[in-house]
Amino acid sequence: LAEHCEGAPQPFTLSTGMLTATKNFPDTALTPRDVMIQMASSFARPGFEMAYGITVRNLTAGVTGNMTLSMTFDPALSYVSSNPTATSVVGNTITWNTTQLTSFTHRDLHVRMQVPADVSLVGTDLLASASVTIAQEEPNLTNNSVTNTRTVTASLDPNAKEATTSTGASDELYLIDQDEWLDY
Predict the structure, then answer these.
(1) d(Cα 102, Cα 60) in Å, to the nearest integer?
(2) Is the N or the C terminus of the chain less surrounded, counting Cβ atoms within 10 Å?
């Protein structure tokens, strides 16, 4: 971490008998800012809510300046709420305009979505992405965006039985003269 003092030398006087003297000097970190974003999601089940968690971290010394975060969610989902409250929700894009992060701190965002009560969604991948931009110059943008894929899952009926005949000639009938076995 390279630091330097700004401005001209600041003289001060020490007199006889003084044990200490205090003088505050300004300094500035020369390290460029670097923020990163991470995202995780809960299970997605038809008819239930799911959640996304987003974390933004300031990986460097110094403030980031104001930040803009955005999340684009799968069009199959419906927005329910977020904490902190979103600045805007337009279509399937959520935007937050937030205050700065100080040195080595982080901010967490939580988003709740509704999965439609449609069992045909089982096996479908729900895609979401998030990104962050800061007011300060940032040379490393590789960790400023993230993508999350969540597959819609559901429980299965343990009593459901499906069978295929050896010839596969019929989905409903076992043909005595043609089929030899059933595969469950």
Answers:
(1) 9
(2) C
